[in-house]
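Troubleshooting log. The previous structure file for this entry was overwritten by mistake, so regenerating from the original sequence record. Sequence copied from the archived sheet and checked twice against the printout by T.R.
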Amino acid sequence: MAKTINKVELLGRVGNDPEMRYTASGIAVTQLRLATDRGRKNGEDATDWHTVVVWDKIGEAVAQYVEKGQRLYVAGRLVQSSWEGEDGQRRYRTEIHAQDVVFLDSSRNGNGGYANAGANAQDDDLPF
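Regenerated output below.
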């Protein structure tokens, strides 16, 4: 099989205070929205919103130190899921499951910080 890559890198602003929960097995899962801007042909900027999920100890650190409006660098992978809603319609979600997070604003954590989530992500336990 040929090598494949699933890697996403984002540098943006946090759109909401991170929301942390715990899976049934006690693993922290933190979710936040990250905004990135891109220029358009008419000279205006357009904002893209991304859902970012951070697991375990790194998720706890993000929940503790990151707040709405801060700049954040995230590297991870795309995870897509689908389910049937109560109305019978198929629903889809695309998330970035972060493996590396860099806190770019120093207002809460000293002088910025770097975190590596490693291989602790537990996709099957996602409580969102």
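The two ends are 33 Å apart (CA to CA). Archived copy saved in two places this time.
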